[in-house]
Structure formats: C-alpha cells, structure tokens
C-alpha cells in the first residue's frame, strides 16, 4: 500500500460550531486555557488499560504512538515512515530522530517492544490487547500464557520491526490505538502532545508537553477536563463505547446548535438462527422484509456506514425474494434499556403492533438493564426464548472487514449463531488482500451472502455530536471515535 496514498487520506478536518461558554483563565506561559466537558472523567490513564472512549481519547493525548488517527486513516506520529514487506507480513517502522519523553529521556524502539509485552501480559488485563495487537506473531499465545516469543524486534534505537501472523492491510491503523503507544519504563512521563498536570476524582488538567516532536502544533497551554458543562469552552463527543466492540447507543440527543459527527457504528437487529422459528431461512427473509418496510422513524441504514472507505462498493441493496409467508409467528425481542436507539426502535415496533399483526407477526418485548445483561441473554449461544436482539457493532479500522468479522462461524459475537463455511473462506481471502479495490469487491460478495442469509439487518447508523464556544476552533474528529485536541485555539 503506497505511503503517499496513506498520507493523502490524513488531512484533519477542522470543524466549527457555536454555543454559549466563557473564556476561562490564561496561563502564565501564554496560550489558551480551555475548559472541556467529557461524558465522564476517565478512571484510568494507562494506555494499555483504557477501554471506553473518554479514556482512550485522553490517553491518545498523553501518549503518542507510531501513528495517529486522522479523518479516514492515519498519519505518522513518533514513526516518521514505515515499510511493508513480504506481501504485508513484515512492517518496519522508522522512528523520528530525537523523540523524547516529557522527562527529556529518549524514546527508543525498545520502549515499544517493552510496552507491547506489558500490554499483552495476562496480568495486565488490557481490553484492547487482542483486538489491536493480537495479529502480531506470537501475541495470542503470549496473551494467554505469558510465555513464548513475540514478533517485535528493536533493530536499533530508531527501527522497530513487526512480524504478523498473516498479512493485513491496516496494521498502521491498529498501531494508532493507545495500547500500542510506549508507556514510560519507570517514572511518570508522557510522549504525546500533553502531559498530566493534576488529577482528581472529577477533573483532569493537562498541560502542553514541550518535548513532543510536534509541540509547535499544540495550541492550548492547558486543558481542564471534567464532566461539568458549566462555563465550558467545548462539550466533547458523548459516546462511551470503544471501537471494535459490541455497541449500544449511549449518546443522548444532540443539544441545539451542536455539530453532528459521523461514526462507524451500525445498529443491528439480529435474527437468532438456532433453536427459534428463525432457523428457517424463508422465515428470516420474511421477518426481515416486514421490519424493513415498517416506518421506524429512522433514516435508511446500510450494513457499512457511508463514511467507511469503499462503502459504495461494499454495500448491497438488492431486493430479497420472498418465497413464502409463515402463518403466524410469535417472537421475543430483547434490548438494553441503556441503549437510547434500541429503546426508540423497540417503541416504534410497538407503535407498529397492528401492522405487524397484519403480517402474522406478534412481538413480545423483553428489555434488560445494560449491555452486560444483554450479552448474557444473547450469547452466543442465545438463551432459549430469545429470537431477536438489538445490538450493534463499531469498527476499529477503516475497512468493512471489521464489521463483517462478527459473522464467521467461530465469532464470539455472532449472536445469530449463523454459520456458512464459504463466508469464512472469503473472510480469510479478504484479510490477506492488500489492494483496496480488490478487497472491497470480495467484501461486496460477503455482504451479498449476509443479505441472502439474513443473520442480521442494519437498522440504524449512529452519529455523535460536539459543541464549541464562539472563537474556539481546531477540533478534529475521526469516525473511529478518537478526536484531536492539540490544534484547538481560541481566536
């Protein structure tokens, strides 16, 4: 994959919006001091242990990695360049000269290797160890046992060589997650645009890290992060679920004047295919046809969000051919009450009760409190009596593969329990196809298989939102869910 094409994707978007707010104090060393509202104050700032979006985003500002998320890809960060060899199997990252921790000690390739070993160690219990680093050769065994070799070599102080289990086109994106950033070896030190100045249960204060390689691009001198919106200069995105995980909509309605932000999260209505009336393909197609023809007060949804590169190629909207209509169906729908979109869709299905009955479908409704209880019921395998499940997925990479990766036979998140070995074979082919256009054509075939088999249907695509006070600008957003604060200014 050409480096020039990667960099062409990486220009950050500058978003502008207005809302009420106050200026806040000016620090003695000049520059803006900004008061920013988070949906919650992170419980951990350890880049290996961050899991929710607020924690990932604050860690993203404190700890720089080899690469950094931009709008629809990544850009170089502590690595100034990288080479991909052996048909995508070996990635060699070249670190910038003179990069240093906030305590002024050098950052070396050995810091990355040590940090990745720590992140993968079983005792660390790092939530993103498998999703982000599991593709590295030996990582899965080391993550499970704490023993064995790892395909990460510090060739010299500025060269890190990573060997993967099999080629993937997007390892530069996985390397942008905070878990792949180097953690300081002993004393508290930071490698990102900011350093932690103070911390309490309800507030974090970050200050500019002048040893960061791109410190000139860091505009604020001080960021005050809290969950309070009083006198805030910005109300930052309110989503909580991290990318690459089961997803429910925890985002409250956007306040007036807020800017909408696209995400790579798709809400799914799963049709459980084992031990239910929906085990019959014709019945699944019938139910899917009925639901997609109801007015659920949501915009039309595609499996792959349109912000995903290649979405226009990958998505399929071919009509499903109905072969027969069942006489009567009684199905149970489960969802989480903490899922704002799920609650709304369940209510809309209830509003359409008469129309559903006219099609011979009777729905029983079974809400549960949160995503933990929902997964307990939905499995896989789903508990007896569960037929339909509202549960989405959020991609961790800029490729439809991660959304399609919940449907293979052995997936831990295949709620439907559907299994097609030919689907799995195409997935193995797709992940090893480095050319984007060729991979997207394979992914189109995968979507067509899902479209015909109907283990799930896309029912909504999610957005987030943020607000900036007048005069504050420079907030940059990646649909992955990570945002950029280093360029924020107040003019």
Give a description of the structure.
It is a single chain. The chain is of the alpha+beta class. It folds into two domains: 3-233 and 469-490, D-Maltodextrin-Binding Protein, domain 2 (3-Layer(aba) Sandwich); 260-463, Dipeptide-binding Protein, Domain 3 (Dipeptide-binding Protein, domain 3). It is built from 14 helices and 22 strands. It has helices at residues 3-8, 53-62, 109-120, 129-133, 139-145, 171-174, 281-292, 311-314, 340-351, 353-358, 371-378, 401-404, 421-431, 436-453, and strands at residues 32-37, 67-69, 74-76, 79-85, 90-95, 152-156, 159-163, 194-200, 203-208, 220-226, 234-235, 246-247, 259-271, 329-336, 361-368, 388-390, 392-394, 456-468, 472-473, 476-477, 483-484, 489-490. The strands form five sheets. Strands 1, 8, 9, 10, 11, 12, 13, 14, 15, 16, 17 and 18 form a twelve-stranded mixed sheet that branches. Strands 4-5-7-6 form a four-stranded antiparallel sheet, covered by helices on one side. Helix 13 packs antiparallel against helix 14 (436-453). The chain starts with a helix and ends with a strand. Mean pLDDT is 91; it is low at 1-29.
Q: How would you summarize this macromolecular structure in one to three sentences?
A:
The chain is α+β, with helices and mostly antiparallel strands and about 500 residues long. The chain contains 14 helices and 22 strands. The chain has two domains: about 5-235 and about 470-490, D-Maltodextrin-Binding Protein, domain 2 (3-Layer(aba) Sandwich), CATH 3.40.190; about 260-465, Roll (Dipeptide-binding Protein, domain 3), CATH 3.10.105.
């Amino acid at each position: 994959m050409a480096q020039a094409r990667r960099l062409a994707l990486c220009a950050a978007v500058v978003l502008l919006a207005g809302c009420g707010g106050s200026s806040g104090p000016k620090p003695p060393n000049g520059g803006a001091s900004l008061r920013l509202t988070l949906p919650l104050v992170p419980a951990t700032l350890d880049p290996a242990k961050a899991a929710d979006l607020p924690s990932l985003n604050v860690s993203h500002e404190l700890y720089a990695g080899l690469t950094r998320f931009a709008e629809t890809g990544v850009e170089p960060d502590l690595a100034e360049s990288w080479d991909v060899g052996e048909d995508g199997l070996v990635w060699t990252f070249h670190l910038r000269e003179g990069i240093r921790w906030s305590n002024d000690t050098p950052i070396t390739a050995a810091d990355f290797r040590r940090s990745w070993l720590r992140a993968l160690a079983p005792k660390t219990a790092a939530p993103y160890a498998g999703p982000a680093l599991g593709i590295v050769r030996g990582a899965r065994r080391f993550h499970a046992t704490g023993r064995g070799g790892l395909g990460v070599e510090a060739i010299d102080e500025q060269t890190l060589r990573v060997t993967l289990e099999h080629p993937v086109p997007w390892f530069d994106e996985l390397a942008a997650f905070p878990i792949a950033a180097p953690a300081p070896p002993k004393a508290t030190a930071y490698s990102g645009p900011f350093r932690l100045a103070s911390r309490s249960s309800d507030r974090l204060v970050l200050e500019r890290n002048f040893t960061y390689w791109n410190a000139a691009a860091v505009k604020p001198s001080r960021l005050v992060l809290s969950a309070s919106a009083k006198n805030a200069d910005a109300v930052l995105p309110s989503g909580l679920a991290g990318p690459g995980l089961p997803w429910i909509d925890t985002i409250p309605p956007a306040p007036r004047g807020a800017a909408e932000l696209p995400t790579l999260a798709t809400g799914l209505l799963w049709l459980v295919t084992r031990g239910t009336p929906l085990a019959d393909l014709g019945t699944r197609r019938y139910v899917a046809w009925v639901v997609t023809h109801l007015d659920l007060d949501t915009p039309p949804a595609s499996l792959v969000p349109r912000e995903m590169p290649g979405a226009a190629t990958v998505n399929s909207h071919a009509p499903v051919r109905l072969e027969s209509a069942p006489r009567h169906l009684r199905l149970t729908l489960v969802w989480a009450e903490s899922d704002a979109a799920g609650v709304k869709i369940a209510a809309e299905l209830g509003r359409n009760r008469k129309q559903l009955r006219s099609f011979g479908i009777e729905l029983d409704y079974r809400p549960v409190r949160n995503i933990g209880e929902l997964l307990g019921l939905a499995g896989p395998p789903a508990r007896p009596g569960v037929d339909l499940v509202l549960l989405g997925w959020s991609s961790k990479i800029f490729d439809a593969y991660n959304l399609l990766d919940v449907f293979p036979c052995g997936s831990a998140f295949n709620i439907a329990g559907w299994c097609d070995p030919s689907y799995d074979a195409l997935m193995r082919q797709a992940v090893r196809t480095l050319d984007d256009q060729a991979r997207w054509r394979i992914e189109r075939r995968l979507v067509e298989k899902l479209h015909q088999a109907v283990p799930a249907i896309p029912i909504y695509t999610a957005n987030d939102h943020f607000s900036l006070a007048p005069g504050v600008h420079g907030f940059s957003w990646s649909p992955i869910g990570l945002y950029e604060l280093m360029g924020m200014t107040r003019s």
